[in-house]
Amino acid sequence: MAARLRLGGGAFRQQKWKSSISIKTKMPPCDFVPEKYESYPYERMQKIREQNIAPSLRTYYKKPLLLHQGHMQWLFDHEGQRYLDLFAGIVTVSVGHCHPKVTMATQKQLARLWHTTNIYMYPAIHEYAEKLTSLFPDPLKVVYLTNSGSEANDLAMFMARLHTRNFDIISLRGGYHGGSPYTLGLTSLTHYKHGVANGFGCTTGVNGAVQYPRNFLKEAYQLIREKGGLCISDEVQTGFGRTGSHFWGFQTHGVVPDIVTLAKGIGNGFPMAAVVTTKEIASSLAENLHFNTFGGNPLACVVGAAVLDAIEEDGLQKNSEDVGTYMLLELAKLRDKFEIIGDVRGKGLMIGVEMVTDKDNRHPLPAEEISQIWEDCKDMGVLIGRGGLYSQTFRIKPPMCITKSDVDFAVEVFCTALQRHVERAAAK
Q: Quick one: which of 112, 144, 164, 252 has the most CB atoms within 10 Å?
């Protein structure tokens, strides 16, 4: 694993937990000491949030966390409380918060060249393009670098339409592919819809780590290609070794897409993304001018290259497989113990835990009950996400550097939160 950093000057020790909830398993130790928080008081931050930040940017939890610093799988709030991050900035922090290798590479490039433009040649984009595309099977060897997953999916749709001269696009119900007006047409989840026309020509997984049935993708790809279509694989969350057995999600299904989109874990939190495709399909975009100001800038390319190096050197794909499998098995024990766990599913460190009223009717557990379990986990030091058609699935997708000791702690916390739910229900 990566070497740990110790910061000096104004550092302070982590405070003891204020939560009244007691658990048997202690939070695993961490020798990293966060810097002292010196920004605005919490109350002023709340006022700024209300007055100056768009209300569509919602926060988690009844009392939103004010996060101050991160180190590998850990996050620290303004009071020094430490949290095990099992959501990784919405599946974005791939190799760990402020990973030393990525941090040092970024700092070095910051002192050399931040930005020029891709109308000039500079080393970083060429080095990174070669390194990234070497991880793909033929003929996926051409990359177009962008700034976000939504932008990458927009571009993939545009490329496919240019190349085929067809228009309609099919995606899966329950999937999420971005928040831009173009990609919203690929998303059927109602809480992302705004009641206006968008994504014309699109017919519909934030749905909670749902795996495809065996041979589904092979047969779907065959049908699409028989009709003259192209197959696009959104690897924004499943890519970069997170599923454990393979570096890319599509590889687990024995298919090769025509276009692949990448984001989130590609930059470990740095805003960057990519579209990887064939030379023939990429050439369709060259018929007219298509330009991206910031995509593939020197800083982004250096970050991306350092992330790939960290994944390889730290053995994070293998760690995702080993630790992810261990976590799935431990969570499966809770599924057998608690009536409200309807399903535990996933692969590697991409896990969904679906909550139900009971295993017979499998109705989604009411939102207020899920929220209380969620809050209890946070109060005990574990941060997890939520998803699904009814927000009934806990999403567990941590930085790929977590350990089995972290899993033991997280599962104990989750078990305690579930037991508290059972006790509350019995008391009604």
A: 144
Distance in angstroms (rounded) separating the CA atoms of residues 353 and 82: 24
Out of 70-84, 95-109, 188-202, pick the least confident: 188-202
Mean pLDDT confidence for 135-159: 96
- Measure the CA–CA gap between 276 and 136, rounded to whole angstroms: 9
169-209 confidence digits (pLDDT tens): 888 776 777 777 777 767 665 555 555 556 556 554 756 67
Query: Distance from first CA to last CA of the chain, Å, rounded?
Result: 47
Q: Can you list the pairs that 165-169 forms with residues at least 24 positions away whose Cβ atoms lie under 8 Å?
A: 166/228, 166/229, 167/201, 168/201, 168/202, 168/203, 169/201, 169/202, 169/203
* Residue from 295, 359, 282, 350 nearest 317 by CA: 350
Max CA distance (Å), the chain: 68
Q: What mean pLDDT is predicted for residues 94-107?
A: 98
Q: For Cα atoms 319, 320, 325, give the angle at the middle one, nearest 5 degrees.
A: 105
- The pLDDT value recorded for residue 40 is 97
Residue scoring higher pLDDT (287 or 328): 328
β-pair partners for 356 = 364
Q: What is the C-alpha separation between 240 and 404, in angstroms, rounded?
A: 20
Q: Report the alpha-carbon distance of residue 203 to residue 158 in Å, rounded.
A: 15
> Which of 70, 77, 76 is closest to 93 using CA atoms?
70
Nearest to 124 by CA among 142, 109, 136: 109
- Does residue 364 have a cis peptide bond before it, meaning omega lies within 30 degrees of 0? no
Residues 92, 399 contacting (CB under 8 angstroms)? no
Q: In terms of Cα–Cα distance, which of 399, 409, 310 is closest to 70?
A: 399
pLDDT confidence of residue 20: 54
